[in-house]
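Hi! If you just cloned this repository, the fastest way to understand the data is to look at a raw example. We've pasted two of them here, unedited. The first protein comes first, obviously.
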Amino acid sequence: MRGRLLLVLAAAAVLAGCGTAVRLAYNNSDFALRLMANEYFDLEGDQVDILKAQLARFHEWHRREEMPIYASVFRSAAERVADGIERADVVWAVAEVRARYLALATQGSEEAAPVVASLKPDNFAALEKKFARGNAKFTKEYLSGDQAKRDRVRAKRFEEQFEMFMGDLTDEQRELILRFAQSQPRMSEVRLDERKRRQQEFVQLIKQYQTSPELAERLGDYFGNWERDGSPEHAQLVREWEDRLVKLILDIDRTMTAEQRSRLVQRFEAYAEDCQVLARQGRPAGEVRAALLDLGLAH
């Protein structure tokens, strides 16, 4: 996770599945994740049953352990935004979201290991095709046209993220975002190179450790330390990008209207309430255990 307050907390909201309008989506996210996994791996037969059981266990863990923490984070975010964002608030946000991401990566790797162990050559072929399609889409969206067009596309994505939380932006805020997008013209090229490297590394990892008892640990290390082994250029660009993003967030905060600030505070407060509700709606442990017993994945 990269250093941001509004956008990093937005990422937390996506991971949590929070928001009044999407409580139903969170309660049915097992199904959405199964569709996503099938899109990457084209799973069949017993693989689908294994995935279903592991996702049920992951979802139960996430609701029980993570939702109360998300509620606390969103409540604190609302208080901080109401008082005006300082650099210390951005540092806090980065630390909170990185901690939550690491928890997800660790638990998710444990639950993913039985599915990865079931993969066959056809699944690997489907994964390679999905990566290729995704890279082609990234190239089309971020690397087509001249540099001015690329900057506008990047700026538009950032504007959408801010508007999701704050509402309509002012001309001054849009200009701040555009200047931020223009500040690192090579970011998209380096991101694509790093993306491809990580994809190759992932395929090699799961092929090497697919039948090893170390599989879950290796997956956790891969996802939990994704920044560790990048190229020096990528690492430098990420550091510079984070520094500029911190400045952008602080600049946006200083130009925020009373209406925008009120909307942002209310949004975070609503997220906190939704996370509390979802945490209380925990699935009966027996339901999850029964699914695992049917597949011989529990004792």
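Ok, and the second one:
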Amino acid sequence: MVAIVRSRFYSHIALALAALIVVAFARTYYLRFMADLPPLSTLMQVHGLLFTAWVVLFVVQTRLVAAHRVDLHMKLGVAGAFLAAAIVAVGVVTAINAAAIPGLRPSGRTGPQFVIIPLTSILIFGGCVFAGIALRRRAGIHKRLMLLGMVGALGPAVARVVILFHLREYATYVQLAAVAVLIAWCLIADWRKHHIVHPVFAIGGVLLLLSWPMRMALTTSPSWEPIGRWLASLA
């Protein structure tokens, strides 16, 4: 029997994304006890804990597939579905609560204006993950959707990097660059292994990239502002 050699791409990019998230949230979450910062609210702690659990699960799942333990990968996937649902629910509430906090965000938007940014990220994450779960028997589509869901959820992590390196005036460009680099990595990996780019990466990657200028434009549009203020009032 010929052994199936699985690509290490998913394991490597999962570790890279996990490292980015840990570095981005080190000061404000993981090592917050070492900084002179006020305690996080219970909601923020739960939100951080759930997403950290997802990142760990994502890394473990890619390692299991690389180790040919698809059986365990599928069993953990059941827990992952419930975890993803909790992340979406808590993420929406967290984003709405944050909209009521006064002050400008790194992008220069107010809370009610900015709330569309995290809400879109949560919807992209949820949409990709639940589509990936629904198509779990089609491995090629499943794994790419799950990865795009992770990339789609990186907005807050990249925003912390923007703050860390004092790049507030370039916030939108940094977000675009981060997505572009990760999508390019996905496309190159596909091309190197299969000599063709999978439509999930090609189409999904382009849509994910385009979502950033679209939502940034919506933040200051007259149609969004009353919606943003209404959402902030719910906090």
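That's it. A detail worth noticing about the second one: The chain is about 75% helix and 0% strand.
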